[in-house]
Recover the amino acids of this structure.
């Protein structure tokens, strides 16, 4: 349509128009963000205790560890897989970080946690990518295996580290903002860059969307998927250390049920469970939605038993919302 | 047609039936009558409308115009359950066997059909081993145990197992849609015997095929379809295979400028020696730079196996492949691409492009390294190249449109652009115009010819003789995994190619 002579003249205009459309398109797909904003408004009106520095700090502290686990889940789900062993990895990495070498050095503890996660991720990845097993069943086995190791290692008793500065990372703040929250957002940016800007990331999307086409295009699909599970393991392991650092001890039950939260946050954030579609931003927003709800339920003194039911209901509603097209909703509203 | 048939009982009556799909008329005003105790063959080239007619007869689709009458059934047949009640039994090209069911369960599969009634309390009858054995014996499967699983049977046995349902289900019309395509000579005898039995039992047998020997060994009458129209119905004893084939082919579509033969003087860009893989056996050929070589053959003749094994999409049992003098043994498609071989798949939707990717992302997928440093993609560089490619190949919708939303022709342009970015020496195209409408085809042909003009060696696999003659400098004809003839467009006709691919006789 355009000849080469006019292409240079058209470009600036086209780009400006293009950006505007992109913004519109972006805004149209951000329903998780609107849910979050709505929740914040509701929270602000329902209790004065919500928008206080102490409560918001608390909220960020709670969200950060799960947020990092959600990032791990996000990258796995992008490939069309699932990792339900993340919670157990958090637990195992936490107790090992606090217990191995008696937890005398914080850098060593971080290294232990990250390597524990990487090792479990490598086993998951090898079984899924190279042995062709179902991600669900592989990581289900790993969930039980890793949690079992946690109890075997701790015998059910929390492990106290020797290092006096073990809690430093989790408790320190930068300009009043919890460091742990900054770490979470930093990792989110890193993962966003990884999936959006690198060759590896493009391969992850391609493998998740269409394995055959990716393979036919010369992409090493198996090693890509393998590496994704290793990265997920590293993230979960690091989250495990942070959790132990926050609590001050390696708790055997740490991270239990995180897989449910992480999967739900990823899905609410608009990532397709079939793979190939999703944004890190969505996963971050998804995490915040869950954190705000949990926080609010505590502030409103809702019974702990009901809180779980609320969370479950939210997952169902959110997933249902993702199936309804934006335009369809608009049409239905016009009719009534 | 003949006086004899008019005295027979009508089994089905097709009156002025047309079937239109968006953009395509698959069947155009076809009228045809089938009689009890007669075998009617329906012949035609690929895309002539034979399978459409079979599907309409079986009630799997409804005609756009006209009607189909079955005596004793006063409404249109819609859906498989309806067809079974009306006494129509359709045998597919791919036998409908449930892999995880036993042979016996597969025989009595029809018992699971509730024909619109849902009765979850209905029990599956047990202990029918004796009855099963009797049924199996009638179709020559007396040696097959009723307890074996469907998946354990080879293609020939599977087809015969599917055909055993003719002994179980009441029917007055038996449709065989290319049923013999996957059967061997040995099982063909069993099919023939079965058809004889059906005929003498007063069943109207409709046999859809393009295999002349089989058609002539069993049919009483032959109906020939061409481009959706019924050309003629002839009595088998009054005609010859050659005549029927001429009817099938008709007038060849006039070609664009005829490709000339490329002199075989220089060193070939691609040499394949004694390649065996899948159904392709002992294949040897070479392609010059600047030459378009056509491989023509029917579906299942091993065409794709040749290209897929050269390009690392499929392993090969033996043989060597040489590209510009270097021996190439591609273990994966990426490996092949790195060594100068690009393969454009027949199955675009599955293998050609990534469904959640835009045109731009798909175009650079095979060559991301060109646009990245230390694994980080340089977006500006990538987008600039994408814009160039979009205008070069005139892809509709621009860089940010999802490739899956485009027409077949535009999708194919995206796939071509992707592979040419890898700057291959050898381009292998598997059915490049499959699912692409006539207008866009010419566009694809021009792109393919320009590849050759740029000095690349091009191999095109096609099941359309006209396309082969229009596009290729030289054509090899493949039959049952082996080359049976070599043709040049200047001295050959579509007739020659089809004849060679069917009968295996070189002109």
């Amino acid at each position: 349509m355009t000849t080469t002579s006019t292409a240079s003249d058209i470009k600036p205009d086209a780009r400006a128009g293009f950006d505007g459309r992109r913004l519109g398109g972006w805004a149209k797909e951000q329903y998780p963000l609107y849910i979050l904003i709505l929740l914040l408004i509701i929270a602000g009106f329902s209790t004065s205790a919500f928008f206080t520095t102490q409560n918001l700090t608390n909220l960020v502290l709670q969200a950060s560890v799960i947020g990092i686990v959600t990032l791990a889940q996000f990258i796995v789900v992008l490939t069309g897989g699932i990792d339900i062993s993340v919670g157990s990895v958090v637990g195992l990495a936490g107790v090992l970080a606090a217990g191995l070498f008696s937890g005398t050095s914080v850098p060593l503890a971080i290294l232990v946690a990250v390597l524990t996660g990487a090792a479990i991720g490598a086993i998951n990845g090898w079984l899924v990518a190279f042995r062709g097993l179902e991600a669900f069943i592989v990581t289900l086995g790993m969930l039980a295996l890793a949690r079992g190791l946690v109890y075997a290692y701790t015998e059910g008793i929390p492990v106290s580290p020797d290092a006096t500065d073990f809690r430093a990372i989790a408790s320190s703040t930068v300009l009043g903002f919890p460091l742990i929250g900054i770490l979470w957002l930093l990792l989110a940016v890193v993962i966003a860059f990884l999936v959006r800007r690198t060759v590896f990331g493009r391969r992850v999307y391609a493998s998740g969307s269409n394995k055959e086409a990716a393979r036919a295009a010369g992409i090493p699909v198996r090693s890509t998927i393998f590496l994704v599970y290793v990265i997920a393991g590293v993230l979960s392991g690091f989250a495990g250390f942070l959790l132990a650092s926050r609590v001050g001890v390696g708790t055997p039950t740490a991270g239990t049920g995180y897989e449910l939260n992480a999967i739900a946050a990823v899905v609410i954030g608009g990532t397709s469970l079939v793979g190939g579609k999703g944004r890190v931003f969505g996963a971050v927003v998804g995490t915040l939605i869950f954190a705000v709800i949990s926080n609010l339920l505590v502030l409103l003194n809702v019974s702990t038993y009901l809180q779980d039911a609320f969370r479950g209901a939210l997952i169902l509603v959110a997933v249902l919302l993702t199936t309804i097209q934006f335009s369809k909703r608009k049409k239905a509203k016009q009719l009534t | 047609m003949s006086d004899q048939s008019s005295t027979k009982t009508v089994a089905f009556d097709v009156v002025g039936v047309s079937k239109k799909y968006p953009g395509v008329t698959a069947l155009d005003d076809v009228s045809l009558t089938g009689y009890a105790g007669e075998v009617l063959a329906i012949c035609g080239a690929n895309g002539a409308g034979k399978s459409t007619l079979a599907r309409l007869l079986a009630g799997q689709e409804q005609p756009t115009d006209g009607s189909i009458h079955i005596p004793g059934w006063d409404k249109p047949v819609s859906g498989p359950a309806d067809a079974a009640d009306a006494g129509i039994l359709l045998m597919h090209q791919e036998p409908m066997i449930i892999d995880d069911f036993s042979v016996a369960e597969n025989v009595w599969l029809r018992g699971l059909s509730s024909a619109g009634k849902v009765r979850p309390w209905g029990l599956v009858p047990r202990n029918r081993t004796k009855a099963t054995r009797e049924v199996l014996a009638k179709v020559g499967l007396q040696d097959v145990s009723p307890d074996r699983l469907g998946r354990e049977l080879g293609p020939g046995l599977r087809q015969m197992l599917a055909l055993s349902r003719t002994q179980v289900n009441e029917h007055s019309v038996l449709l065989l849609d290319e049923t013999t395509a996957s059967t061997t000579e040995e099982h063909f005898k069993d099919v023939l015997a079965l058809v004889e039995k059906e005929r003498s039992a007063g069943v109207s047998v409709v046999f859809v095929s393009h295999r002349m020997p089989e058609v002539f060994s069993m049919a009483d009458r032959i109906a020939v379809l061409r481009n959706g129209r019924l050309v003629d119905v002839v009595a088998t004893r009054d005609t010859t295979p050659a005549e029927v084939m001429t009817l099938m082919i008709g007038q060849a579509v006039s070609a664009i400028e005829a490709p000339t033969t490329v002199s075989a003087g220089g060193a070939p860009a691609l040499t394949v020696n004694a390649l065996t893989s899948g159904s392709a056996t002992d294949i040897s050929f070479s392609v010059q730079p600047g030459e378009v070589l056509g491989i023509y053959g029917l579906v299942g003749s091993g065409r794709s196996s040749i290209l897929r094994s050269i390009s690392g999409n499929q392993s090969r049992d033996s043989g060597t492949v040489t590209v510009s003098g270097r021996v190439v043994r591609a273990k994966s498609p990426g490996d092949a691409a790195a060594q100068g071989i690009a393969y454009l798949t027949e199955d675009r939707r599955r293998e050609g492009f990534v469904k959640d990717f835009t045109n731009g992302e798909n175009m650079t997928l095979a060559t991301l390294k060109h646009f990245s440093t230390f694994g980080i993609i340089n977006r500006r560089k990538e987008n600039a190249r994408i814009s160039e490619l979009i205008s070069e190949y005139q892809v509709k919708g621009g860089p940010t449109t999802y490739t899956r939303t485009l027409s077949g022709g535009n999708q194919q342009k995206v796939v071509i652009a992707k592979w040419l970015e890898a700057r291959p020496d050898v381009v292998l195209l598997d059915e490049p115009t499959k699912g692409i409408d006539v207008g866009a085809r010419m566009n694809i042909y021009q792109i393919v010819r320009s590849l050759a003009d740029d000095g690349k060696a091009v191999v095109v696999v096609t099941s359309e003789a006209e396309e082969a003659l229009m596009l290729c400098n030289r054509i090899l004809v493949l039959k049952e995994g082996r080359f049976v003839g070599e043709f040049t467009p200047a001295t050959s006709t579509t007739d020659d190619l089809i004849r060679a691919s069917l009968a295996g006789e070189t002109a």
About this structure: The domain at 3-249 of chain B is CATH 3.40.50.300 (Rossmann fold). Residues 185-200 of chain B form the longest helix (16 residues).
